[in-house]
Amino acid sequence: MRDSSNKIPLYYQLVDTLQEQIENEMKPNDKLPTEKQIGEEYSMSRTTVRLAMQELEKRGFIYRIQGKGSFVSAIKPESLNSFFDLNLMNHYLGENRQELKQDILLFTKEPPKVSISQKMGLKKGQNVLKVHLLHKLRSTPVAFERLILKNQYFSFLTEKTLTDQGIDQLLHDNNLTLKAIEETYKVVNLSSEESEILEANFEPALAIFKAGYNEDNEMIVLSERKILTSKFCYQNFVGK
Asked: What pTM was computed for the model?
């Protein structure tokens, strides 16, 4: 199963293998082997196994009981799709995602621009939550992100919870589901401010614009990322 020449990260390869076993060989509430046992079976580090288990749990294939282990969920989703991941860490083409950190540069509630208000269907007087993030890989700036969130759905979000848990885990914990994602890409020149933040000396960047919609087809998330592709390889992954 392990294929180091494959561009798909090892933990995603492991997710795919374990998902296949869950779907074809296991029943709801069956107990999975421990992380140590899985690592030994597939010759992978505990870190890689832990990331794979976190991914399976996030996708709904397994659930965990503290002190007892991991178990097969009664209802399993149909696919893995990283397009729905808002955390940049889940788009990192590298084995050790823990090398990627983020600094919160801005966290504020404010009135939106007219164009944003129209896109999100906001009423007069409603604010948005604006967040600016600087993503670093081994302490080197690699991406600058502007997040705009429909405030009424993100009352649970604070600087501390965003830092400690990450936005994808917070969405999951608060039963906030994204049902559709729109993502577009463009090569752009960085502004003076962006160049300074990224320490990039005006080099071109990959701009990724992502819009997230809830079950009522409301746009509740807007993300704009400027990524230095010379330092960070961005990926998406879809699996059946």
From this structure: 0.70
